[in-house]
Amino acid sequence: xxxxxxxxxxxxxxxxxxxxxxxxxxxxxxxxxxxxVCGSDLHLYEVLGPYLDPGDxxxxxxxxxxxxVGSEVTALSAGDRVVVPFNVSCGDCYMCDRGLHSQCETTxxxxxxxxxxxxxxxxxxxxxxxxxxxxLRVPFGNTLPIKVPDGPPDDRFVFLSDVxxxxxxAVEYAGIPPGGTVTVLGLGPIGAMAARxxxxxxxxxxxxxxxxxxxxxxxxxxxxxxxxxxRYGKDIGDAIRDLTDGRGTDAVIDAVGMxxxxxxxxxxxxxxxxxxxxxxxx
Length: 282
Ligand SMILES: [Zn+2]
Ligand SMILES: [Zn+2]
Known about the structure:
Oligomer: single chain
Helix content: 10-25%
Low-confidence stretches: 272-282
CATH architecture of the largest domain: Alpha-Beta Complex
Strand content: 15-25%
Number of helices: 8
Number of strands: 11
Number of domains: 2
Bound molecules: zinc ion
């Protein structure tokens, strides 16, 4: 099959590699039809290089069609359409039973002190071959893949692999009071989705901050009060306070990401966009 492989710092290539095969009786093989590229993949492109080997297959946001199932897979059969969550979890351990799938004790990489394994995401997370590939071996075929209906196009479902649940969790953790207000710093995929989810869940005002014109206009079209950081700079906090009776929004979601260290937007949090001190992340 063809797959995107890591070869070295700032060096990734589509190569021909062996097809994945069923190893455990609960494995399934998925033929990937759509797969996302994540801001988190930038870590692999740069700083996490020491934890990859040349040839490692990247990617953790795939969906596709089940091609083959192991002998103990009863929940899926060949031809089923599935989304594959980025987080490899067994669905059946102490942590999974409590909904803490990112700490799945079956796939946890204990020797590295990290959480559960992830597809396509370094030795720190299990060195599991990833989904930017024509075929993907998915363990825990009875519980991990999410079956979705045939019909609507892939982009109605593919965000279930990472972007939608990640953004939903951000809104959940932000604890916006009913009918309250929130500022979302960064309107990339996660920030834009978090802003839409906050509106969907009843926030009365969602402020978004970014400095990319296309992101700002998309957020505006979604009903977000979008602020262009290039225009406001250090006054961004005052601009948001002016909108909210001088108080600032009830909650703040930092969706800038760690990739943006040193970027002007990362500074926005330090400039005090929110007024609640412990809601402003460093
Ligand atoms: Zn991702
Ligand atoms: Zn588990």
